[in-house]
Each structure stands twice: as C-alpha cells, then as structure tokens.
Design goal:
heterodimer, A: mainly alpha, B: 81% helix, extended, transmembrane (chain B), membrane (chain B), Brnchd-chn_aa_trnsp_AzlD (chain B)
Chain lengths: 234, 107
Amino acid sequence: MSDDAFSPEPPPRFLQGLLQSVPIALGYFPIAFSFGVAATRAGLTAPEAVMLSLVIYAGASQFLALALVTSGAPVLVSAFTLIAMNLRHVLYGPALMKQAGSGASRRLAWGWAWGLTDEVFGQALGALARGQRFSERWMFGLGLGAYAAWVGGTAVGALAGGGALEAWPALNAGLGFMLTALFLALLLSILSRAALPAIAVAAVATVIGTLAVSGTVGILAGMICGALAGVVRR
Amino acid sequence: MNTDLVLLAVLAGAANWAFRALPTLLLRQEPRPGGLAARFLAATGPAAIATLVVASALPQLYPVPRDLIPLAAGVLATVAAYLPRRSVVGATLAGATAYGAVFWLVS
C-alpha cells in the first residue's frame, strides 16, 4: 500500500513501469502473433487485424470477434457479446485505486486506464501490494509496454500470414490451443466459491445452446444464464 | 477496410475504454456489497470466461472428437503452470507449449 506521507522512496517513473511490463510483453507477443495469423487465416487483411488490436485491445474478445465475424453473426449481437465479456474490467480501476491509497492521483486515468488488461492490472496490484508507490506515469509505462507488444505481435503475425505455419504443424497446433489456454487460465484466476454457480450454469447453457442451435447462441446463452445465476443466488 | 468490422471494433473498444477508465474517474466508492449491481458485476466476468472456455474447447469434442491427448496435456499443463505462480500469461504459454509438444509426439 502506498502512503505518500511516510514513504521515503520517490514515486515510480515511466521507465520503471516500462521495465515492469517486460514479462507481460514477452507473454503477449506470441499470443498476439497467433491472433494475427488467425485473423489473416479468417480472411482479414493485415491492416484489419492490426486495427482490431489497436481499437479493441482485449485478447479473448479479439479471438471471439474473429469467430463471430466469420460465422456471419450480426454486428450488434457480436458487439454485445464482446462487451459482456469485458464487463469484469469495471472492477479493476476501483480495486487498483483502493490499493494505491486515498491520495493517489487519478487525473490522467482517461489515458492509462485504457491499458488496464487482466495482466497489467494484476502486475500493478501486485507491485502496490508489495509496497511500491503509485504514480500515473508508472501506469502509463506499464500499460504502454504491454500495448506495444500486443499491437506489434499482431502486426508480425498478420504479415507472416495465415499460411505461415503450415510447414510447422506442431507449432500451428500449439498456437491454435493458445486461446483455450488463455480462457482457462483467466478462469482459474477468477475462480472462487462464490463464482461457482455462475461458472457451472454458464458452462451447461453454452453446451445446450451450441448443440441445440448454434455456437453464437451457445455463447450468448452461457453468458446471460451464468450472469443471472449469479444475481439470483442467495 | 470492412465497415462492419470497423463498427464492431469501435463499439467493443469504446465499451472497453469505458469499463476500464470511467469507474476510476467517476466512482469514489464501491457498489454496495451484496447489492444487485455488485452481484451482477461479480457474476458476469466468471460467466463470460466459463462460456468461452467451453465454446473454445467444444469444437474439438463434438461432433467428432479429435486430438484428445494433446487437449488433455494442454489443459493439465495450463492448470499445473497456473497454480504455483498465478500467472495467466505463463499458464497460457505453458498450455500451448504442452499441446504443441504432445501433438508433435503423437502425430
């Protein structure tokens, strides 16, 4: 927890945040690369793939956007699905500011908060919990390193093209599993006893919706039924 | 550039920015614990992610099961890598590596 009045160390600088973003960037680059490859394989151009990473900047949402676009789902249904998926980010800013302390500035949050992905949030919260002070320029550095790796990885993957990995079937298979692994790891990161009803209902509703109607209906059914299960539980 | 794709990106991106920035800028206190808003917010994230885990794995299981051994290895490696360090990125990379390695071994 940072405490300006009693901490002798100066607030962390932009460069410190950038350095702390290196582990995230190393993880983001190959995932973004596989997104770029998947996007071009799905028929998108390289500029379209990079645009998705620049404008959406949410890994799981972007992979899902590919699936929805290629399945011909209506734009508004797709947008609703992507938006519902990232609603959890609402909690990140308040949780981070609570850890930063009541005197922490949030004047430039309109800028640095764009970079509050799951991993950046986790890294920032962990650093503050270990006693590091909070500063907005540090948050900019932390977020920018991860963002640059994400957009850069997408560009390299998209330029390599959808056929880039055909000569490397095992690498292709591993990258193809990355999305499932990312979702599974995210699920583990938010797993709790309180979340179990929502998770169980969402999983069952997704299977029923997919098998009975289509993949898009399965995704919508899972998210809506799961969220309602969380609201109605006692 | 595909107009529908740009519209989808702008809608999703604007919502992402709003979810990440507006609570920090506007909310000075958390939702009432146990209230409807708090419960909805708490349930939406897990529901969305659980849905996506199932939706991403289901095509490999139904209608024709394929590559089940790499799938099992990838899932186990993801869980095993996540538990000690609680790193989403590390677990993702470990799972994908295990999947690719086992795929190479059995194919």
